Amino acid sequence: MILERPLRFLSAALLVLGTTAPANADAPQPSAPTGTIDQFVQGWMAANGVPGLALAVTQDTHIVHLQGYGNAGNGHPVTPDTQFLVASLSKSFTALAVLQLVEDGRINLDASVAAYLPQFTVADPAETARITVRMLLNQTSGMADAGFPEVGPPEAPTTLAGRVANLRAAELVSEPGTAFHYFDPNYAVLARLVEVVNGRPFSAYLRRHVLDPLGMTATTSVVTAAQAPSAARDLARGHILAFGVPMARKELDGSLGGSGGVISTARDMATWLILHNQQGTFQGRSLLSPQAIRLSHTPPPGIDSSYAMGWTRQTGPPPAIEHSGVLSTFYAHQALLPSGRYGIVFLANAYSGLIDFTGLQRGLTTLVTANDAPTSQGFGARRIGIALIGVAVLIGAVGAWRLRRLQGWRQRAGRPWRAALGVAGPFIPAALTLLVPTLLARFSDRVFSWPVLFLAAPDLLACLVLTAAMGAALGSARAVTLISHGRTGRPA
Which class does domain 7-89+228-288+310-370 fall in? Predict the structure, then answer.
């Protein structure tokens, strides 16, 4: 998302290394041989410039494939025990914690959130009482980025209570319970709800009631991204991608508690998938009833949305219950495939809007369930990055050529309206570049800050900015040329 390094990094080479980790020796194997899966993943990583990735595949109660690939960016290879920020996969943990308290009779799904959190309020206090716990879980509270864009002051709240308190400025964009809007603070409020009802920090509740019973000893939770390195000693280092080259970078700081703050490993996440595929039971111990697990996987009726409670339901093929997680330097994806009782999770220490994570997800699903090789690795972010270098060079060359032809343009400009268009037209790319966040918000229902956008696609943004700069230079030069010739009395 931000272009901070010079183009000399384009000469850096990425060596993708595979590391092995033992799985259950007595476990059944997925349809595709594990070697085929490894070959596909390593080829995909090379094509997309991803330095490190961990993968787990489960079936029923078994881990059938568990592997680390490449490097963690901290001087170590990726293993199944390398820790990653799993971003929005965290929402499924928060949802399970809330549903546990619901089954304990301590939370009512259809009660007002304010009944448990008197400090929770939105800009219109009258609307606050209408927002229920269920609406937060289903992302139908009426809150959305458009009404409260978390575009991030550096002093982001370091507590869940602080993040919830900030919502007093949130304007609802729809009536509560009537429409889906993906909004991270919904899950921050839920995590704070767990804290208040349980009387202990959210991370402590997760440890005692979820992680320890599952033996997920390498998994933890943080409130802000800045806390992650000290909370997880084996945390991989995140990366962005610029012109096809991975570049190590510190994760953007921000509030993650409840919505994106879980740190985990492929091995631990395999256990998490087994729990869900076994309807809330792991090794004979029930953490949640089958009815509650099914509820967490089921979108609400009457809402045009596939979002359930920390999971989305996809019709396929094949049908899947899944969720992705995106941060500025990490990406994660988890999926349950009910037809074959499979689970697939992968964790990557890089993110770019150009990386074909969807292709990896689909390819793994095909390999695991159908034993068919994916049709291709896709075009790949590396090739796109190389192509964008050519685009940047072309933009610069065309811009320089047009600047050299100023005198010829002045002579051809003719009438004043044509001259005005010739001056104003080159500024259009600059205007469109400035409108990028607004256009994305209009069509995606999400609001992103410039740092986030820059880190997500520094190469694309660089080409846009270069086009804008060359256009602005051309328009300015034409204006100066017209003015100077007007002062000397020569015809324009």
Answer: alpha beta
**CA–CA gap between residue 142 and residue 107 (Å, rounded):** 21
Give the orientation angle of helix 458-487 with respect to helix 406-413, to 10 degrees: 60
Domain range summary for the chain, segments of one domain joined by + = 7-89+228-288+310-370, 381-487
Q: What is the pLDDT of residue 440?
A: 86
pTM reported for the whole predicted model: 0.89
Contact 52, 332 (CB under 8 A): no
Residue 468 region by backbone torsions, left for phi larger than 0, else alpha for psi between -120 and 50, else beta = alpha
| 3 state SS of 139 | coil
How do residues 134-154 score in pLDDT, each as one tens digit?
Answer: 999 999 999 999 999 876 555
Phi and psi at residue 273, in whole multiples of 5°?
Answer: -65, -40
Whose structure tokens read 């997680």?
Answer: 325
Q: Are strands 262-264 and 84-85 parallel, antiparallel or unpaired?
A: antiparallel
- Neighbour tally for 414: CB within 10 Å: 12
Average pLDDT, the chain: 89
Instruction: Say how far apart CA 217 and CA 215 lie, in whole Å.
Output: 5
Name the band, by pLDDT with cuts 50, 70 and 90, for residue 326: very high
